[in-house]
Amino acid sequence: MEPAVSYSSVSKVYRDFFLRARVRTLDRFDLTIAPGETIGLIGPNGSGKSTAINLLVGLLKPSSGTVRLMGRDPREPSSRRELGYLPEENANYPFLTAHDAMWLHARVAGLSRNEARARCDELLERLGLAHARKRRAGTFSKGMGRRLGIAQALIAKPRVLVLDEPTTGLDPVGTRDVLELFASLKRDGVTMLVSSHILSEIEGVCDRVVMLDHGRILKTGTTAEMLTLRDQHQVRFAGGGPDMANELEAWLKARGAEILSSGHPTRSLADVYRELLVDHKQGDKQS
Ligand SMILES: Nc1ncnc2c1ncn2[C@@H]1O[C@H](COP(=O)(O)OP(=O)(O)OP(=O)(O)O)[C@@H](O)[C@H]1O
Ligand SMILES: [Mg+2]
C-alpha cells in the first residue's frame, strides 16, 4: 500500500540574506506514515517540528530530499485536496463570525450549500463553539480560537490531518473532547501527524512517536514500545486491607523481588477537575 506521507532524507537549511546557511532545522529526516496511522512529533522548542509539518503542507520547500503527500509533491495544490491543517498560531479572520469563517472554508473546499450548512453546525457543536457561532473570531479567547482552527481543518473530511500543537490553550475538558475527536477520526481511518509538548496527550492517541532534537530523529517507536517497562510488574487491587498488601510484599521479597514502590494509587488533577466541573454539573441537570 502506498504510504499516506513520506519524507526521504529531508533537510531544511535556512539561509541569510547573503545565502549563507544559517540554521539547519531538519537533517536527513526520514519518516513514512501508513494510511490510518497517527504519529506524534515531540521535541524541545526549535527542534524542527513545525518545519517538518510546514514541509508536508507545502508551505516550505526542502533544501534536499523529497516529501510526498498521498504520493505527490505537497507543493502541487491538487495534492492538498484531502489535507486538513492546523497551524501553530491561530490564523482566524478576526472580523468573521465563527459560523461565517466555517462557511467560507466549506464553500472554498467545494461543499454544496446544504453540505456546508450541516457540516458547519456539526463541527461548531463538536468543538463546543455552538454558543459562540455568531461572535467574531477576533473576540475569541486563545482556546476558542484553537477550537475554531480545528473545526476549520476538519471541514472537508480530510484523509490526512496535520496538527501543530492542537491543544495549546485548551482547558482540560476541551482537551479531552479534542482527543476523543482525534480517536474517532482515527477509527474512521484518517492519517494524522500531531506535534505537541503535552506528552501525556500524545501517548494516548498516537500509534508511533518521533522524538526530534536539533533537527534529527533521536528516537522513534510505537508508544507501547517506548512506554512499557518490560522488566517490571504492577498489581493494583481493591477489597483487601493494608495487611494483605504487607503480606504480598513480604511474599515477593522472600522470592527475591525488589519492591520499587508501594502504597495507594493517586488520580490525576485532570480527573478531579472533570469530576467537579463535568460529572457534577451533569448530575445537577439530571436531578
Ligand atoms: N524562517 C526562518 N528563518 C530562519 N530560521 C528559522 C525560520 N523558521 C524556523 N527557523 C529555525 O528553525 C529551527 C526549528 O524551528 P521549528 O519552528 O521547526 O521548531 P519547533 O520544534 O516547531 O519548535 P516549537 O516547539 O518552539 O514550536 C529553530 O532554530 C528556528 O529558529
Ligand atoms: Mg513549532
Bound molecules: adenosine-5'-triphosphate, magnesium ion
Poorly predicted runs are none
Whole-number total of structural domains: 2
What is the CATH superfamily label of the largest domain? P-loop containing nucleotide triphosphate hydrolases
Helix and strand content put the structural class at: alpha/beta
What does this structure look like?
With 287 residues, this protein is α/β, with parallel strands linked by helices. The protein folds into two domains: 223 residues, Rossmann fold, CATH 3.40.50; 45 residues, no CATH class. Helices cover 36% and strands 22% of the residues. It has nine helices and nine strands. The N and C termini lie far apart (53 Å). The mean pLDDT is 90. The site of adenosine-5'-triphosphate (ATP) has 12 residues, from strand 2 and helix 1.
Give a quick summary of the entry.
The protein is of the alpha/beta class. Helix content is 36%, strand content 22%.
Descriptive tags:
binds adenosine-5'-triphosphate, six-stranded mixed beta sheet, binds magnesium ion, Rossmann fold, alpha/beta, about 290 residues, 9 helices
Itemize the secondary structure elements and their pairings:
Elements: E1 5-15, E2 21-33, E3 38-42, H1 49-56, E4 64-69, E5 83-86, H2 98-108, H3 113-126, H4 142-153, E6 160-164, H5 172-187, E7 191-195, H6 199-205, E8 208-213, E9 216-222, H7 223-227, H8 242-254, H9 269-286
Helix pairs in contact: 2-3
The structure holds adenosine-5'-triphosphate and magnesium ion (MG).
The site of magnesium ion (MG) has 4 residues, from α1.
